[in-house]
Amino acid sequence: MLQNIRVVLVNTSHPGNIGGAARAMKNMGLSRLVLVQPKDFPADEASARASGADDILANAQVVDSLEDALVGCSLVMGTSARERSIPWPLIDPRECAVKAVEHSKAGESIALVFGREHAGLTNDELQRCHFHVHIPSNPDFSSLNLAAAVQVLAYEVRMAWLGAEGGALSIEKADAGATRGNELATMDEMELFYEHLEKTLVDIGFLDPAKPKHLMPRLRRLYGRSSVERTEISILRGILTETQKVVRGEPHKRKD
Ligand code: SAH
């Protein structure tokens, strides 16, 4: 069940941190590691720090973009050591772990995303996440080592999983957001929707590409917290398609 939970490391500089993260994951029973453009990987230092979790490194998937790393996921939680310009739904590692285990039990794929050692995740990357996770550290010294941050989340996931196994959490698919029998839209489906939405908003003159302000991030935040189902995305895309037809003066569904 923990196999549905992937750990995504974005642009990691130090291979030692990749190894440390792999070890932290294996200790806690997580196995799926995805690396977005690591600076130096594979590397001896990564294997040395993994000390026995080499299988996680050997099976790690290396991809070119965060978008590629999130394919198939319906819940994405991004970690951040500090406050960002647009406030996003913010949770702590414990809440994050409970959500991850709930969704995983419902058969959904989940990503836990970690940023660069020096700069964390960009605002754009954070806006691709449904929730932001902050480890409540000392505000005067808030940034943990990357592998240490992975360890904290992996431990909480294990605790939530053990609790669920012991029946402490009674988890139904409905609790994971989707109504019974309906699947949540995945990140790749949501990205296609956002592209379609942005284009339509430009076409109808609601969004000025020269002055986008924070419209798209705000809309991402809105849809991101709505647990949108696959069937609902089809409806929304259908509305956008008809809207575009009206704008272009093409034949559309409205009769009059
Ligand atoms: N200087 C960076 C910190 C990067 S630390 C910044 O100011 O954003 C590297 C990564 O470890 C972060 O991107 C995040 O994924 C994780 N991390 C470190 N401290 C964290 C904290 N207190 N809460 C959540 N994630 C944290």
From TrEMBL:
Primary location group: cytoplasm
CDD domains named in the record: SpoU-like_TrmJ
One GO BP annotation of this record: methylation
Catalytic activity: uridine(32) in tRNA + S-adenosyl-L-methionine = 2'-O-methyluridine(32) in tRNA + S-adenosyl-L-homocysteine + H(+); cytidine(32) in tRNA + S-adenosyl-L-methionine = 2'-O-methylcytidine(32) in tRNA + S-adenosyl-L-homocysteine + H(+)
Record flagged with keyword S-adenosyl-L-methionine: yes
Subunit structure of this chain's protein: Homodimer.
Protein name: tRNA (cytidine/uridine-2'-O-)-methyltransferase TrmJ
Lineage, top ranks: Bacteria, Pseudomonadati, Pseudomonadota, Gammaproteobacteria, Pseudomonadales
GN (gene name): trmJ
